[in-house]
Amino acid sequence: MTLLCVGASATLSGCGLGNGPGSLFVDPGRYSATHCNEMAARWKYLRDREKSLRNLIDKANESGGGAVIGALTYRTDYESVLTEEKLLQQAAAEKKCELTQAYQSDQTIR
Predict the structure, then answer these.
(1) pTM for the complete prediction?
(2) Which residue, 28, 40, 72, 107, shows the most beta carbons closer than 10 Å to its own?
């Protein structure tokens, strides 16, 4: 019971932080020395991870007690991913990096 209270306190204390509850688990200066190409690769990984965790949470919510289990199991990781995405977007904006690649053809239209 004590462990549950400590976990709930840590989660709720993160709600007052500017980048969301996941900011307890993410280093705000993580991307200060990261190059644009690395940021773009990390962005793709984070988007895929977010989608995967969202699917797991949704799947857990389909069963009666699954919502609680899904929240306990996946919610912390999900919040961390969302927070890291925000920090990555901020760092990319500061460095004027594009996180999604604009595809350009090397052939001209005839």
Answers:
(1) 0.66
(2) 40
Residues 13 and 20: their CA atoms lie apart, in Å, by 10
- 65: Cβ–Cβ under 8 A, 6 or more apart, which residues? none
pLDDT band at 40 (very low <50, low <70, confident <90, very high): very high
Domain spans, the chain: 32-95
Q: Are 88 and 27 in contact (CB under 8 A)?
A: no
Q: How far is CA 7 from CA 13, 17, 21, 57, 77, in A?
A: 10, 16, 12, 19, 14
Give the SS3 label for residue 20.
Answer: coil
Show Cβ contacts of residue 87 under 8 Å, excluding neighbours closer than 6 positions.
19, 26, 28, 30, 31
What's the pLDDT band for 3 if we cut at 50, 70, 90? very low
